[in-house]
Automatic annotation (TrEMBL):
Top-level division of the source organism's lineage: Archaea
Listed Polar residues bias regions: 1-10
Descriptive protein name: Glycosyl transferase family 2
Molecular-function GO term, any one: transferase activity
UniProt key word Transferase: yes
Transport keyword on record: no
Organism annotation: Halorubrum californiense DSM 19288
Length: 271
């Protein structure tokens, strides 16, 4: 399969991976996020020193060291790493040993942890990821390049390459979530629930986040429906290390509810 990104019908622009090096990234949207596109013109482009990689962690001692080592390798050890942790195993200890900033929190769900994680650092670019080694940290330079090219949000599209490492039921559900969101927004998206995205700090600070299990979808839907420059970039998705913590039925229902709720709230906000 070619690395050229799929076509989209709405404001979520697909990045042409094959053409990136020669032609730059594609797509933009005008709206509330327009001011963010002026990307620090006086101070120049963002570097890894401006980057925070954040995650919620819960009993991921099998994978956390690998993820943090991959982040260090991809960013020359210059990115800040923040873990909001509710673990009962050695995850926070391992994270600290690898130089991460760990904020301990009673387990309250995915969204509560990730919301704390994205709002904690003060560097101008924030990247969310999961701590189960499913996401390609070697793609961090490409995500940062998209931000420097003017994107407000860069969303990793796991489904473009097929996501064969993902359980079939989860893969079907993620396609369904994207279809529902696209219909309700009136704008095409390909992967609504990916955990790997880059954001300009002002985007995460200006929007009020309300969801828990469905936060990953909310983090895409609200910026897109408010006119920010949102781009989907194909990424490879790997088999997770350790056991999954998400109930596919209960969690899926909560995500679907969040998608409907957030889309309707954003539609009403336009009136």
């Amino acid at each position: 399969m070619s690395d050229s990104a799929h076509a989209t019908n709405g404001s979520a622009s697909a990045v042409d991976v094959a053409a990136d090096d020669e032609n730059g990234a594609t797509g933009s949207a005008d709206g509330e996020g327009g001011a963010a596109n002026a990307a620090d013109a006086e101070s120049g482009e963002y570097t890894f020193d401006d980057l925070s990689v954040v995650m919620g962690t819960y009993n991921e001692e099998e994978a956390i060291a690998t993820v943090l080592e991959d982040i260090d390798e991809a960013t020359d050890g210059r990115a800040e790493v923040v873990c909001v942790d509710g673990s009962s195993d050695r995850t926070p200890e391992i994270a600290r040993e690898h130089g991460a900033r760990v904020i301990e929190q009673e387990p309250q769900g995915y969204g509560v942890a990730v919301r704390e994680a994205i709002l904690t650092p003060d560097r101008p670019v924030v990247v969310t990821t999961d701590c189960d080694d499913t996401y390609p940290m070697e793609a961090l330079p490409e995500f940062l390049a998209e931000i420097n090219d003017g994107a407000d949000v860069v969303s990793g599209d796991r489904l473009y390459h097929g996501a064969d490492a993902m359980p079939a039921f989860n893969r079907f559900g993620n396609h369904a979530f994207a279809a529902i969101a696209s219909l309700l927004m009136g704008e095409g998206v390909h992967d609504t629930t990916t955990g790997m995205r880059a954001y300009r700090r002002d985007v995460v600070e200006e929007i009020g986040w309300t969801e828990n299990t469905g936060l990953s979808a909310e983090l895409l839907i609200r910026p897109l429906m408010r006119g920010y420059d949102v781009r989907e970039r194909p990424i490879r998705y790997a088999e997770r290390l350790g056991e999954t913590k998400l109930d596919p039925i209960g969690g899926g229902a909560a995500i679907a509810k969040s998608i409907v709720t957030v889309c309707l709230e954003e539609q009403l906000r336009r009136f």
